[in-house]
Amino acid sequence: MRKQRFTFQYIILAAALLLTSACSTPQPAEKTLKEAFDGKFLMGCAINVDQSSGRDVVADSLIVRHFNSIVAENCMKCEKIHPLENEYFWDDADQFVQFGEKNNMVIIGHCLLWHSQCAPWFFHDEKGNLVSADVLKQRIRDHITTIVTRYKGRVRGWDVVNEAIMDDGTYRDSYFYQILGEEFIPFAFECAHAADPDAELYLNDYSMAKPGKREAYVKLIGQLQEKGLHIDAIGIQAHAGMDYPDMNDMEQTIQAYIGTGIDVMFTELDINALPNVFENGNENAAVEERFEYEQRMNPYVNGMPADSLQVWNSRVQGMFDLALKYHEHFRRVCMWGLCDQQSWLNDWPMPGRTNYPLLFDRNYRLKPVMQKYTMTAH
Ligand code: G3I
């Protein structure tokens, strides 16, 4: 009985000592994302109108706490901001810019010219025919000048031309290209620079790790530079998956772009956790490509299994490690959304799936994978 009492007292004492030592050893405080990458690159987030308007209060508190840069997920796209030739809709874009200013964030405009989500009036005359090269140039100039001038000195940088090159390196056969040929790209840069000479100007595209696309952009950057046009950086969208892109290809792309003398950014980072629905495995981020829902393509409705999560974690860290390795040339890493339930990848390329592509989960918790950066000095 006496022996038992002694043993019990020793256990209590040992527990008390452990507790005291745990309390007296300073624990590393967990940094926010923007603190973790401070001095290396900006930490960005694409935000939707519920967030910029203040309706999504929980999301907003996380955006303000963890990010120092924002980009408009949708509200600055042509169909939203310039739905008719003589009509601009500013409310959402104004609110987005005010949100960034209120919270001292670097504000990025997305996007001035994009073949997708362009308002239907842009390329056609009143009879429905394609407009002439001169008319399209005038429309492009008006569109870019009006938008960039409105936010002059407030928006730090613009995705001037989005997704102009195909994966094999040929020009996308958009109306911009059909009517103006390659000239539409330098022309857009000229207009944007004239409207705000201090704004940073970018190209932006997906599938950048593919060699054909990489080479085409290296050539295009060179052509813009030869013409003396202003270009600061190129946006690698970085819509990635569990087995693409190959990280060596991605690193080669980063090196090739840095080699042109401009900076690089991951502008729309997310990692699709679900099975690839493209038959040839050639997943991209072309919003126009869509498939019918299939149950077997939606396997993780109740959460990701541990082995898949491990792969997902290593993919995320692979991207951040690359950005850190080249941080002297990396301006920004921007997540394409805050938390999993808000991602476009729940509905693309197949609607109604449960995806896990972002850094915050469905309960607004930062995923443990980021502790590699938030808990340590690197
Ligand atoms: O706001 C309307 C809503 O009123 C309507 O009821 C609903 C019905 O479909 O549509 C809502 O608009 C949707 C919008 O997202 C806002 O949720 C559009 O249909 C839908 O097409 C739109 O998708 C966006 C897509 O671009 C096309 O603009 C995604 O949110 C957005 O994440 C995605 O972002 C693109 C980048 O701009 C460029 N790179 C690829 C990236 C992913 O596709």
> What hetero molecules are in the model?
ligand G3I
| Shape designation | globular
First-last Cα distance: 54 Å
Second CATH tier, the architecture: Alpha-Beta Barrel
Q: Output the number of helix runs.
A: 13
CATH domain class: Alpha Beta
Largest sheet: 8 strands, parallel, barrel
Radius of gyration over C-alpha positions, nearest whole angstrom: 24 Å
Low-confidence stretches are 16-23
**Main sheet: strand order:** 1-2-3-4-5-6-8-9
Please bin the fraction of helical residues: 25-40%
Number of strands: 9
Provide the β-strand percentage band.
5-15%
Taken together, the total number of domains comes to 1
Structure, described:
With 378 residues, the chain is an alpha/beta fold. It has one domain: TIM Barrel (Alpha-Beta Barrel). Helices cover 39% and strands 14% of the residues. It has helices at 2-24, 33-36, 49-52, 57-66, 78-81, 91-102, 133-150, 175-180, 184-195, 211-226, 247-259, 306-325, 371-374; strands at 42-47, 69-72, 106-114, 157-162, 200-205, 233-236, 239-241, 263-272, 330-335. Strands 1-2-3-4-5-6-8-9 form an eight-stranded parallel β-barrel, surrounded by five helices. It is globular, with a radius of gyration of 24 Å. The site of ligand G3I has 10 residues, from loops. Ligand G3I binds at residues 73-74, 77, 117, 162, 237, 268, 285, 287, 344.
Descriptive labels:
alpha/beta, single chain, 378 residues, binds ligand G3I, 8-stranded parallel barrel, TIM Barrel, 14% strand
